[in-house]
Amino acid sequence: MDAEHFRDFGKAAVDYIADYHESLRNRSVLPNVQPGYLGELLPEDPPQSGESWQDILQDVDKFIMPGLTHWQSPNFHAYYPTASSFPSIVGELIIAGFGMVGLSWIASPAMTELEVVMMNWLGRMLELPEEFLNCSEGPGGGVIQGSASEATYVALLTAKEKKVKDLLEKNSNLTEAEIKGKLVAYSSDQSNSSVEKSGLLGSMKMRLLPTNKEGQLTGATLQEAIKRDKEAGLIPCYVVANLGTTPTCAFDNLEELGPVCNREDVWLHVDAAYAGTAFVCPEYRYLMKGVEMSDSFNVNLHKWMLVNFDCSAMWIKNAKYLVEAFNVERIYLKDQHKGLAPEYRHWQISLGRRFRALKVWFVLRIYGVEGVRKHVRHQIALAQYFAELVAKDQRFECCSCSMGLVTFRLKGENSLTETLLNRLTEEKKFFLIAGHFNNTYVIRYAICSRLTEKEDVDRSWNEIIRIAGNIVPWKIT
Ligand code: PLP
């Protein structure tokens, strides 16, 4: 394909995407296909000679579109949002168009430099302590990872290397292998699956500690667990605090956890994958009080900050530890600018890196800080509106409402709520998922799409109460 054909193909694709977004409200959010459907429709072998882009685009519509779950639909309320916005989509196109891999500063200087600037913009937007920023006097800095999972894992590996080095320097009578075998990490039983996975991947015991009724890990629980492990001869190393848990968007209290971690010399990582974006709004910053006591902090721009997947912002208070942990040099990676700009390959797992900062730049410039705030506040207001609808109907109980996430259930046996969710899912018009709240079965209702409006919330609620009417046939308002 030459540049002339690319112009036509690209323009047609942009029209296709715009049409798709405009049609989302009228589509069933869940597809009506069975596992293996696509294998039956596509040829077993690739074509021997090239085909026309028109045929391919048509086949996207014919074969792929029917198998899509429409994450950007205003009727998608599952999981957490996966952000998408037009400036970010264009950013992705241009990133692909440049076709670069940022191995080092010289591999494409603008890549590193824009990332440094964007991470500072974002850090100031969230009002993170200055020492986390690239521009501070100290060794702090920000980097874009692919996912929160990677950020949690990178922080765990860094904490591990630091702890081993510190203990060996203090002339511990343990060998490196013995120290590594005794390290322990902690988080809450509400933390995301990726936190437990980081322990598995990093070969570190991960204790998922019980939370209080609000889904928070308290300082006392953490302190007690650390005490017990020390008494058993283990070495506490790493804590992941949650600002916005996946089940109910609960916030751990950093003012309680921070002093425990600092006193015990344990690395504190903050997973604010979803809710971290809310800190662009001054009224929510009280929820991150104590963040200055953490060692690393992460927020997924691809969840709530209008930047398409994948784009996860991570800050580290002392990036020296990170670079020491992951620095592997080769002659083909050397350049003479060493030390003058971050060599981000040492801050992550893979060697190559994408130019993700470009799409962040597009989003922040098109929306502005105020635009992002408006988006966040609008989605929180919609969730509160949904929670009010639930609370008004006496058949239901609203279990939690935090940020853009509501959990609710039908009063009585769990099976009633389970039946409600199953019937709703069978209809495929709205997509909600199950969760647990204080050991009861609940339905999670998250405001995900930037297209969701009050009327969409009303429509989904009307559908919920219509189905509920067949399960629990009375209503008192
Ligand atoms: N942390 C929290 C609180 C999450 O809700 C999620 C995903 O929903 C993750 C981490 C994992 O995010 P990622 O897919 O970017 O690894």
TrEMBL record:
Gene3D superfamilies membership: Aspartate Aminotransferase, domain 1, dopa decarboxylase, N-terminal domain, Type I PLP-dependent aspartate aminotransferase-like (Major domain)
Entry keyword annotation includes ATP-binding: no
GO molecular function, one term: lyase activity
Modified residues (N6-(pyridoxal phosphate)lysine): 303
Domain of life: Eukaryota
InterPro entries: Aromatic_deC (IPR010977), PyrdxlP-dep_de-COase (IPR002129), PyrdxlP-dep_Trfase (IPR015424), PyrdxlP-dep_Trfase_major (IPR015421), PyrdxlP-dep_Trfase_small (IPR015422), Pyridoxal-P_BS (IPR021115)
Keywords, comma-separated and alphabetical: Lyase, Pyridoxal phosphate
Cofactor(s) needed by this chain: pyridoxal 5'-phosphate
This protein's record includes keyword Lyase: yes
Family to which this protein belongs: Belongs to the group II decarboxylase family.
PANTHER family linked to this entry: 3,4-DIHYDROXYPHENYLACETALDEHYDE SYNTHASE (PTHR11999:SF60), GROUP II PYRIDOXAL-5-PHOSPHATE DECARBOXYLASE (PTHR11999)
Name recorded for this polypeptide: Aromatic-L-amino-acid decarboxylase
Classification of source organism: Eukaryota, Metazoa, Ecdysozoa, Arthropoda, Hexapoda
